[in-house]
Amino acid sequence: MAMGRRRIERQEALFVEAEELAHAEGWTFYTVLNDLLSVHAFDRFCEERVAAEKVFDEAMGRPSVPPGVYFRMLLVGYFEGISSEREIAWRCADSLSLREFLGYELTERTPDHSTLSGLRRKLNVALHREIFEWVLQVAREEGILKGRQVALNATTLQANASMKKSLVRRCDGSSYQKYLKKLAKAEGIEEPTKEDLQQLDRGRKGKKLSNKSWKSSTDSQTRITKMKDGTTRLAYKAENAVGPSERSDRGRGGPRSRPRGPGDAAQDPATGRRDGDAGWD
């Protein structure tokens, strides 16, 4: 077999018949999903729910992008792991299978990112959640939704921030040292020295730091956290979620770091402490 060479110059055809266009098989998931959405009247359901929100004028202005198309594009972002509206628009415009999923011909222009942003601002979060859950329910009933279990893994990551130097009170922004001086004056020490503050802090009963009252002045994403070694530090909580049947390099739920929240102790027994009740070690 001889090696093929790419032609540098070519004469572009003026007219191309639609039957002669090459079609890739694409991802059959979208074809199956689109058939199911049509059977269950997805577009009519979306139009009725959006019409009930009364965010459009039925008598004036040009028609908007059909709600069914808008929500299909958001589903593409979910299935493809795309969070950017601009990237979703590029992906739908560039893919033949996604054009078919949206119901757009090659000669038609797919919605751009500004159209997606405009519709997202008009429609509330509750409506998005309702339609998304409706699609999941249909997929589950028809047997094309395989994911039934999610494996979770989480750990705490110490932040590059000092507790003693960066902690400030949420109510007035005062530092921990100023807070100790206020306590010292309440104890009758008018001009407390550094040693007085250390002794007061060391012997203070019920000494606890709560995330409801304190925050880091240098990194607002950190939280006061009980680490696995028993010490208390400013830290993040990194989580990883993946379906057990998926390969680790293809999992949709990549690692994410987030501030620790009030419910973390119930989810992560390694800490054994609620977020709002961390002690200073």
Secondary-structure topology with pairs:
Blueprint: H1 28-39, H2 42-53, H3 67-80, H4 85-94, H5 96-102, H6 113-122, H7 125-142, E1 151-158, H8 163-166, E2 167-169, H9 176-186, H10 194-203, E3 208-209, E4 214-216, E5 223-226, E6 232-242, E7 256-258, H11 264-267, E8 278-279
Describe the structure.
This protein has 281 residues and is of the alpha+beta class. It has two domains: 25-142, no CATH class; 152-170 and 207-279, no CATH class. The chain is 40% helix and 13% strand. It has eleven helices and eight strands. The strands form three sheets. Strands 1, 5, 6 and 7 form a four-stranded antiparallel β-sheet that branches. The protein has a two-stranded antiparallel sheet with strand order 2-4. A hairpin with a 5-residue loop joins strand 5 and strand 6. Helix 4 (85-94) packs across helix 6 (113-122).
Q: Summarize the biggest pleated sheet.
A: 4 strands, antiparallel
Net shape: elongated
Low-confidence stretches: 247-256, 265-281
Q: How much of the residues is beta strand, in percent?
A: 5-15%
Structural class call reads alpha+beta
The Cα radius of gyration reads 28 Å
Count of alpha/pi helices: 11
User: How many structural domains can be distinguished in the coordinates?
Assistant: 2
User: What is the distance, rounded to the nearest whole angstrom, between the alpha carbons of the first and last residues?
Assistant: 73 Å
Average pLDDT for all residues: 78
State the helicity in percent bands. Answer: 25-40%
Oligomer: single chain
Count the strands? Answer: 8
Order of helices and strands: HHHHHHHEHEHHEEEEEHE
